[in-house]
Structures are given as structure tokens and as C-alpha cells.
Write a structure and sequence with these properties.
This protein is an alpha/beta fold and 250 residues long. It has one domain: Alpha-Beta Barrel (TIM Barrel), CATH 3.20.20.70. The chain has 11 helices and 8 strands. An 8-stranded parallel β-sheet has the order 7-6-5-4-3-2-1-8. Strand 2, helix 2 and strand 3 form a beta-alpha-beta unit. The radius of gyration is 17 Å and the shape is globular.
Length: 250
């Protein structure tokens, strides 16, 4: 049975001291959560947060990583650096990386394979732009991002891969796909994973929803059969809000 994952993507928010303070506030609120709980601070905040959450039930994630393990890559961060800091999961293919920083499906796939080869788990983000949804291309866009992002992976690799469906038009806008709309894409993506691998792999894969998830809509979203948690931005930046999300089923 798939476990829910409630993940906070803190993006480029919080200084190291602020991130550590937020992690301290979150700890007692989520310690009895029945869902898996994950936080992804910015690179410079990872050491401070790692120290706070050490030994707790909170999974430490990074928001991105480089396509290489070392070398002349100014401004990049290696998977080896992340591992040494205690990072367990890396978020790859976030829409902001795709659409602001020009990351291609091929580049993201390179990162996915490198992360897995070095023992990290991957949370692969997919999702369509508003104009793609309005043109009836939402499923096609997600299928392409899945096919290219997961290219070259084995069924065994997929045990360490999660998917986050984030319609780009719903990220940070206050707009949210209706639970039925989100469920439809989640179900379609699970079907695509079954085509790419097999039904057992598809049924075992955690697929989160991201896009203006808040305490007041989380229960309705999580009630959907194929939605296995949330990759949450703004609502993860305060402890009471994130605590409420992590304990949505109580």
C-alpha cells in the first residue's frame, strides 16, 4: 500500500538560521504524523536543517543537483556533496527549473540517473502550462515528461522514484486544480508508468500533487484514489500550516 508523503519545498526562502528555527518548530508538530514528512531547504540551509532534524522522522531533501559529480561547474552542487550532508531525496524537474532556467527533459533524465546511481531517491516533477491545458495537451505534456525523465530506468530503479504532478498554472497562484482534475492526471500518469514498466510498478509509485495545496483543501485532494501526498511550496513555510498538512488525516 502506498504511503502519503507530505513534502515542503522551501524554494529560495529562509536564511540558514531561519530555516533551522522553522525546522525546530515543525519537529513536534509532525512527530506523530501517519504520513511520511519531507522538507527541502535551499542548498545553503541544508546543513543547519540537517542538524535540527537528525534522528527524527523528517526526511531531508534537496531542491536540485548538478548533472556531474565534480569539476568545472561554477555555481552547481554535486550529488556527492548532498549525500555527505545527509540528503536522502532530490527534487528534479521542478517547473521553475524547466521554465525559468531552461532545463530540458534530457538534462533532467541525466540528473535522475546520476542521483539513483549515487543512492539518492528522486522526486520527479511534471506538469503542464496553462496554455497547454487549455489546448487539451495536459496529458500529452505529462506523458512526454515521464517518458523522457524516466528513460533508461529499470523497474528496480523505480522503487526509488516518486512523481510530483504540479500544473504550472497552479503553483503559487492560489489556483488549484479541482480534486477531480488532479485525480484524472494522476490516474493517467499511473497508467503511463504501467505502460513504461508494469502495473505493479505503477501501483507502487508515489504520485504527489503540487499547486497551492493548503490546510483547507488538503483533505479533499488526499481523498482521491491516485493522489499520494503533496509537494507543497508556500504553505510549508510556517510551522502551523505545515503541521496541519502533515496531520491532514487527524
Amino acid at each position: 500500500m502506498r504511503e502519503y508523503l507530505i513534502a515542503g519545498n522551501w524554494k529560495m526562502n529562509k536564511t540558514p538560521s531561519e530555516a533551522a528555527a522553522l525546522a525546530k518548530e515543525i519537529l513536534p508538530l509532525v512527530k506523530n504524523s501517519t504520513s511520511k514528512v519531507m522538507v527541502a531547504p535551499s542548498f545553503v540551509c541544508i546543513p543547519a536543517v540537517a542538524e535540527v532534524i537528525k534522528g527524527s522522522n523528517i526526511i531531508l531533501a534537496a531542491q536540485n543537483m548538478a548533472t556531474a559529480t565534480e569539476g568545472a561547474h561554477t555555481g552547481e552542487t554535486s550529488v556527492l556533496m548532498l549525500k555527505e550532508l545527509g540528503v536522502e531525496v532530490v527534487i528534479l524537474g521542478h517547473s521553475e527549473r524547466r521554465h525559468i532556467y531552461g532545463e530540458t527533459n534530457e538534462m533532467i533524465n541525466e540528473k535522475v540517473k546520476l542521483a539513483l546511481a549515487n543512492g539518492l531517491k528522486v522526486d520527479l516533477c511534471i506538469g503542464e502550462l496553462l496554455e497547454e491545458r487549455e489546448a487539451g495537451k495536459a496529458e500529452a505534456v505529462c506523458y512526454e515528461q515521464l517518458e523522457k525523465g524516466l528513460a533508461g530506468l529499470s523497474k528496480a530503479d523505480m522503487a526509488n522514484v516518486m512523481i510530483a504532478y504540479e500544473p504550472v498554472w497552479a503553483i503559487g497562484t492560489g489556483k488549484t486544480a479541482t480534486p477531480a482534475d488532479a485525480e484524472a492526471i494522476h490516474a493517467a500518469c499511473r497508467g503511463k508508468i504501467a505502460q513504461l514498466f508494469d502495473e505493479a510498478t505503477a501501483q507502487a509509485t508515489n504520485i504527489q500533487y503540487g499547486g497551492s495545496v493548503k490546510p483547507d483543501n488538503v483533505k479533499e485532494l488526499m481523498a482521491m484514489e491516485n493522489i499520494d501526498g503533496g509537494l507543497i511550496g508556500g504553505a510549508s513555510l510556517t510551522a502551523p500550516s505545515f503541521g496541519a498538512l502533515a496531520n491532514f488525516d487527524k
